[in-house]
Amino acid sequence: MKCAQGESFSNGELQRFGNIELSPSAGVLNYGQGLFEGLKAYRKEDGNILLFRPEENALRMRLGAERMCMPSPTVDQFVDAVKATVLANKRWIPPVGKGSLYIRPLLMGSGAVLGLAPAPEYTFLIYVSPVGNYFKEGVAPIHLIVEDNLHRATPGGTGGVKTIGNYAAVLKAQSAAKEQGYSDVLYLDCVHKKYLEEVSSCNIFVVKGNLIFTPAIKGTILPGITRKSIIDVARTLGFQVEERLVHVDELLDADEVFCTGTAVVVSPVGSITYHGERVPYNEGGVGAVSQQLYSALTRLQMGFIKDNMNWTVELS
Ligand code: PMP
């Protein structure tokens, strides 16, 4: 779908996957005016398809669009477009237990602009791809390194929305971490350099006894839909959950740490290295709380248990 600045999107159409034409002076290429989303479709045992809270992605894109001076599709347009794209690509959805169909909605300033300004025209599109596990470790523990020099977001910046530039900002630290054998980077706040923010593409949770805590959303962390869902699931299961400032030293005596995100689902953390010191968790195994939350969420997302939360959208 396309629309001019200041106007509304009209409904789009399905097209075969392929290259798209863009002006070299498109706003997205020159000034980073782009936003994306990520969702998954799972195949159920009866062959039907389940989407997970797609209206949350639509709302997050609308908030991001406001920050990035872009028009955005309505929630209904977004969700209808996701449904139509998934149904048209039904044959690519892996069988139960073999993965999912990753759905990537993309909104960009596609109009040509030379001086710094919002683009005059916008394009919203969705593409999909079958996926397996995000980390090469699968559901086995991942290993993080704390980065307190390079930052992914600054107060007042765009860290709280899913804009493309946030991901360019993490590439250097993430590549260095991977070269050293780590799975990913855990970022600290850039003011005090001691409070946890998030990982390159997921949110972080710390477990201590019956208490689970996670950094509060304050503009520099992406408000993850998995994060929000896990908070609710954990409370339903009887855990006490706090959203607050989390000091990096609190990692030292944690029982478990795990990450959440659409791609990573619930990924247990096996160790965190900070200033050269490695703190291991669960002797290389998966912690009981991470396992319990992973099972509770994925069983709901894949349709193995009744969705009392009303979070899934079923397509046939
Ligand atoms: N933080 C960042 C930086 C991310 O890219 C993602 C993935 N969208 C998340 C957190 C987790 O968000 P969600 O649970 O909505 O996928």
Structural overview:
- The chain is of the alpha+beta class.
- It folds into two domains: 2-131, D-amino Acid Aminotransferase, Chain A, domain 1, CATH 3.30.470.10; 142-301, D-amino Acid Aminotransferase, subunit A, domain 2 (D-amino Acid Aminotransferase, Chain A, domain 2), CATH 3.20.10.
- It is 24% helix and 29% strand.
- It is built from six helices and 16 strands.
- It has helices spanning 27-31, 54-67, 75-88, 164-179, 225-236, 288-301, and strands spanning 2-4, 34-36, 39-43, 49-52, 100-109, 121-131, 142-147, 184-188, 196-199, 203-208, 211-215, 240-244, 256-261, 265-274, 277-280, 312-315.
- The strands form two sheets. Strands 7, 8, 9, 10, 11, 12, 13, 14 and 15 form a nine-stranded mixed sheet that branches.
- A hairpin with a 2-residue loop joins strand 14 (265-274) and strand 15 (277-280).
- The protein binds 4'-deoxy-4'-aminopyridoxal-5'-phosphate.
Mean pLDDT: 95
Provide the number of structural domains.
2
Globally, the shape reads globular
CATH superfamily of the largest domain: D-amino Acid Aminotransferase, subunit A, domain 2
